[in-house]
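seq as requested:
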Amino acid sequence: MSIPISEVVSRIPRSGIRDFFEIVQSMEDVISLGIGEPDFATPWNIREAAIHSLERGRTGYTSNLGLPRFRRAISTYIKGHLGVSYEPLGEILVSVGVSEALDVALRALLNPGDEVLYHEPCYVSYSPSILLAGGRGRAIPTKWEENFILKASDVEKAIGPRTRVLMLNFPTNPSGATIPPEELERIAAICVKYHLVVLTDEIYSELTYDGASHHTIAAQPGMKERTILLHGLSKAFAMTGWRIGFACGPTEIIEAMMKIHQYAILCAPTMGQEAGIEALERGEPAVAAMRREYEMRRNVIVRSLNDMGLECVKPRGAFYVFPKVSGTGLSGRDFSMRLLQEHKVAVVPGDAFGSNCGDHVRCSYATSLDQIKVAMTRMAEFVDSLRG
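struct tokens:
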């Protein structure tokens, strides 16, 4: 018997990242610059908070919205970190990672056929998440020559009669791009003009370099009431496996998201929320130390890539570089496959992040400096062999 599968699901491709790493996991002695996961263990004081919650028997359900104390900690943290105030009991929803928050936000907002704008290159789940919510995605390409900065003029050109939502992600996965405050201000004015709702994924907002400050569109005039701010603990706090994210936004949107969340998930893990309180209240010293290490690694990997002739924009955020490899005569996919097979280094083909990204590969520097140096030596040997 053949069981029919949803037409929408049938149209969605498997993740380009995960497919590639199925191959990686079948090989030995590979240095991976692929998966975007911190190589640091979760700081001990955060782990200890979770252990203490288990010792106290805190193993039951929480409110669908999340522990009130955790929501208060989120409110205080977001006010200090991003300068936007959210009422803890009505304007914050705790989710199972930012991925769930994104999913329920889209499902709460979209009617069938509504259009969502997003900028490419982008995280691999954005387009499939829009489709699964019944919407239509429209990608706005950003340019390597412009440091992958989203231009307000390009946003305005892309707006159509069914455009409902603009999705932002700064700092950006996979390019590490940030956005200048003046460009963010222009984008905010366009959103107000065309009555767009904004979903802003700020999971990398603590990870900016060269003294740069992060700015959120939610803080722009007229934007808090039309913005859903998505954030979480995975990246800056090295808590990927804890699956704790959160959404901040207007009460009516948070209520709509909570309806979906309560039927699909019920609540985020209790011990993860207990750990999250510790992370937000006392985790900044560990975040600062990890940020310094990432910045040092970034400097090494960017210098190495440019020295071997792979054009690489110096990212100002996140923990990725997105070099152009077309000068080798190979596409990003062919470059990645041959580098893996011939020199045991794993990077992600750029086309996993958008149709206009086939000349690039993504390298994560969320791995040790020693490993990065060995990987760069192997990659330089590979590049030399292509030119020899």
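The chain has two domains: 7-42+285-387, 44-283.
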